[in-house]
TrEMBL record:
Signal peptide: none annotated. Residues 8-156 form the FAD-dependent urate hydroxylase HpyO/Asp monooxygenase CreE-like FAD/NAD(P)-binding domain. It comes from the Bacteria. It comes from Pseudoxanthomonas suwonensis (strain 11-1). This is FAD dependent oxidoreductase. Gene3D superfamilies: FAD/NAD(P)-binding domain.
Length: 458
């Protein structure tokens, strides 16, 4: 039976690229691996495609290795780079994200040249996937191919601005937070409103600051919470018994954690140590909540969780805090409702939690509302087709896709087959913590081991 590929990876961001590296390092002679990624640069995806030096990793370099079994691999790569020569130990530093893209691209190239397998990179956006007698058939505009196994790594989907009138606004009035060139072109005195106050907002603020912007910047979000900073040296509260938490319900867990954080504060220790202790066990913590508690978490806790869990580099925090102190950044706790284009500006209408109108006139609105978790709202034709044909179903609580614990995709009859697996953020419903490199590399290694039968890379 002819198949074009033994394994096809759909999506070549960090997750797909990590999977390719792990597969190539283990593959037996003759295995044919392909990756489908529309952009020209594998490994970049949404997070690492930025060329701007002020966009930093939010994880210290020492924790960003592509290889779970070689935790120092990113540091070893940095040591070979001229720009880091003589710069000392980088393990606790928050480096530019563009360096991480260069690292992944080089490790992919090395894995390809050193592999017994063949590797093809196709710059097509896959629009459909069908199960046929001869394997899994991938389709794109103008072509198709068959594969024995498919790994779905389509990753993050930016959210459209959630406001009436947004679809009638275009650049440069409405800019996406990841459009660095658009942001860099904003006039220095222009009034700006950034919708959303998460990590994409931080990127946008850092770019405006780096480009000499000095006009007022309004930050708009429903909860008005800003990301918090990492503590120096990432301490870990080793005294916290995570196993004991697993047996508790959500409310009791939160009580224990609040108490622990208060004790740390009273003892002059950083609260971040408590979160660092939880970090490797977040998947177990999520899976051990019942469905009702998971729902409560998503409804009432997630905003607070996000700012504590997804922390920013201390140097990024310093810039942010300076701008808040100087009054240049003004935080509005309000829900965005309406955007309309005037002759010279954009009118923004929002409502605070008491129903009072917050009205702003600005030259630019920046959409920093982050990534979409609900698979039906991701506007990805491939995912829509998979759902429509019953090859996939939404994950728990409608977020991501339903998978088993090893990432096998569940179909409409709840069957999880081994030839169609998922890595990365689409596993959020089942795993919750399934976004950052520590999880992505683990998932990539696990699928490579399962599909090549080789547990230790050659
Ligand atoms: C701004 C930002 C900063 C971050 N910083 C860090 C950090 O410092 N450390 C960390 O550990 N994590 C960080 N993260 C988490 C980050 O999401 C992951 O590290 C990683 O980038 C996720 O990669 P991914 O491949 O799953 O998704 P993506 O980066 O979204 O890549 C998915 C790829 O799939 C492709 N694709 C989509 N649909 C199709 C299709 N139908 N056919 C073919 N290709 C398709 C896209 O073109 C894209 O290249 C950050 C995330 C963001 C958004």
């Amino acid at each position: 039976m002819h198949r074009d590929h033994d394994i096809a990876i759909v999506g070549g961001g960090a997750a797909g690229t990590l999977a390719a590296i792990h597969l190539l390092r283990r593959a037996a002679p003759g295995l044919r691996i392909a990756m489908y990624e529309p952009s020209l640069h594998p490994g970049e995806g949404v997070a690492y495609s930025t060329r701007r030096p002020e966009h930093l990793l939010n994880v210290p370099a020492g924790k960003m290795s592509a290889l779970p079994d070689e935790p120092g691999d990113f540091l070893a790569w940095l040591a070979t780079r001229r720009e880091y020569a003589g710069a000392g130990d980088q393990s606790s530093r928050y480096l530019p994200r563009r360096d991480y893209a260069a690292y992944l691209a080089q490790r992919l190239e090395e894995a390809r040249t050193g592999s017994a397998a063949t590797f093809e990179l196709h710059h097509h956006r896959i629009t459909a996937l069908h199960r046929r007698a001869d394997g899994l058939r991938l389709e794109w505009s103008g072509g198709s191919a068959t594969a024995g196994r498919v790994l779905l790594a389509t990753g993050n989907a930016p959210r459209p601005l959630p406001a009436r009138g947004a679809s009638a606004l275009g650049a440069p009035r409405l800019l996406e937070a990841w459009d660095s060139e658009g942001l860099a072109a904003i006039a220095p005195d222009a009034r700006v409103c950034i919708a959303g106050t998460g990590l994409s907002m931080v990127d946008a603020v850092l770019t405006l600051a780096a480009c000499g912007h000095r006009g007022p910047v309004h930050l708009l979000s429903r909860h008005g919470l800003l990301p918090l900073a990492h503590a120096p040296d990432s301490p870990v509260d080793t005294g916290l018994e995570v196993d004991a938490l697993l047996a508790l319900d959500l409310r009791a867990r939160l009580r224990v954690l609040r108490q622990r954080v208060a004790e740390a504060a009273a003892g002059g220790r950083p609260w971040q140590a408590v979160l660092e202790r939880l970090r490797p066990r977040v998947q177990a913590l999520w899976r051990s909540l019942d469905a009702a508690d998971q729902r409560r978490f998503l409804r009432h806790v997630v905003r607070y969780w996000d700012i504590h869990r997804h922390r920013i580099a201390p140097e990024a925090d310093a810039v942010l805090q300076d701008l808040v102190r100087s009054g240049r950044l003004q935080l509005h706790r309000a829900r965005l409702d309406l955007v309309t284009s005037g002759t010279r500006c954009v009118h923004i209408g929002a409502r605070d939690r008491h129903g009072a109108v917050v009205a702003l006139d600005v030259e630019h609105v920046i959409n920093a509302t982050g990534v979409e978790m609900r698979v039906q709202a991701m506007r990805n034709p491939l995912l829509e087709q998979l759902l429509g044909d019953g090859l996939a179903v939404p994950g728990a609580h409608g977020i991501g896709l339903a998978t088993d614990m090893d990432g096998r995709m569940r179909d409409a009859s709840d069957m999880a087959r081994d030839d169609l697996r998922v890595v990365g953020s689409l596993r959020i419903g089942e795993a919750w913590e399934s976004l950052a490199v520590p999880e992505l590399r683990q998932q990539a290694q696990a699928v490579a081991e399962a599909w090549t039968g080789v547990a230790v890379a050659a």
